[in-house]
Amino acid sequence: MQQLKVNKLYIKGFKSYLDAKEISLDSKTLIEGDNAQGKTSIGEAITWVFLGTDLIGNERATTRLINKKAKNTEVIIEFTFDNIQHTLIRRKKGSINELYLDDKKINNADISREFYKSKDIFLTIFNPGYFPMMTPKNSKEFLTGIMNEVDKNECLDELGDFLKEKLIKNKFLLNTVTFLKDKREDLRILEDDKIYLQGVIDGQSKIDIPEPKIFDDTELNDLRMELNNVVVKNNEELLNLINSLNKLNMEIDNIPYERPQLINISYLEKEKSNLLNEYKEYKEQYDGLEEKIITCTKCGNEIDINNLEKDRLANILKTIISKGKVKAVEIEEAKKENQKKELQYSDKVNEYKLNKSKEIANIKIKIKELEDKQLAATKEIEVKKQTLIQKIRDLEQQEKSILAFNMNIENLKKQQLEILKNIDNAKESLSNNELKIKEIKLLIDAAKQFNSIRLKKQTEFIGSYLNKVKLQFERLTKDGELKDDFKITYEGREFNALSNAEKIKAGLEISNLVMNVLNLNLPIFIDNAESITELPELDTQVIIAKVVKGKQLEIA
């Protein structure tokens, strides 16, 4: 176990110690004196040099701890740690703070790491009154932080090889805190599944499967054949008449006579027009001749020299008029001849069309008579067809119903097989479920035993260093789970209800516990020890400060 022992203390400018004072400390040191003699100051000097605080850890207490009359404040401690001599100096001059270990400048973190781990650890051990001042939350966090975990393997060994192997196989050590809760949830799910599976088995019932039906399709096939044979026969006479009618309709538009060859009147009229134009031309010449009188040199008579030309032109005009009249007669006779030919042709065509129309009318009458007869026959056959179709539909519906009935039987058979399969699967699952339930119950029981052993070991370990103080971190619930339940009492009472003397005694037990848990012995400073009639034996350096009325400071 590591041990820190303060051998000498040099104080200067600290509280009531204005001048330098050297104090030697033994394994057991008693400091006595009246009030305000500097007893508590010795303990505060030790905490100040190690921590830079007062006895209760107040880091702002330096202004209270220094002597206002001194130019500087200095505390020097000579101490041994693991039998090695060290010198620690804390010095304050104005706003300058210095800390030296063996002539080497350091800081609070360095010295804490080297000798006492943390401020709370130092004060809990050194000052028995420090821990009782903590809030329940802080005291729980402090103790939880320093406590060694109970060796889980030792707890498992006490269960025996069978249960130990079961827990390890199910990864119990990975999370012992939630293992029970998780397994109870698994058990709940399995119990629910068990109820469900039993319900599946009980709820499945055998299906009544009827015998399949047979459909006789003989009548249906006969009706289908009869329907195929029910058709209206072709009427050859009607078809022939229709063909004849179509032929006559074509013939009536195709006249078998050639049109007569008519005289080309337009040619004759053109000749007549030419004669007229010729007449106009000569007439214009004739009318354009004026009298042209000359006197004959022989006879002396006046002669019109254009008379001869007029006579010639007059003869030509007479000839043209004669030809025109002849051409007019010729045209008139040609027109009459053409009209005669056209009339003869028209009469012949009309007679032809009339005869064909009579033939068409007679054939249409015959066709109408035959169509009426065929329509009546068709209606009769259609009635027969509809009757057959309805009978066929009725039988087909019967056939479909029987097919659906038989298909339903097949589905029922499949359902029956599925039900039997579900029952077998449910029974198998139920069997596996019960094995799992049995296994989980075994694991739950093993975990409960483990928690019980663990709590017992924790309680025994803590109890070995405590007397009247009772410390509990966890409690075992009725379900076997370890639940956080921090409690700390002294003779059954909460710390805030204790007297000053009882707080000191309780603090001493906690100091002893912390030292043994951490394997670290630090000095203990017991202030106001006059209120305690009996002090426990402690295997560490103890500095006791008592008030003795009227006595000067004495250190022995």
Automatic annotation (TrEMBL):
It comes from the Bacteria. The keyword Coiled coil applies. Residues 265-292, 331-443 form a coiled coil. Keywords: Coiled coil. InterPro entries: P-loop_NTPase. This is DNA repair protein.
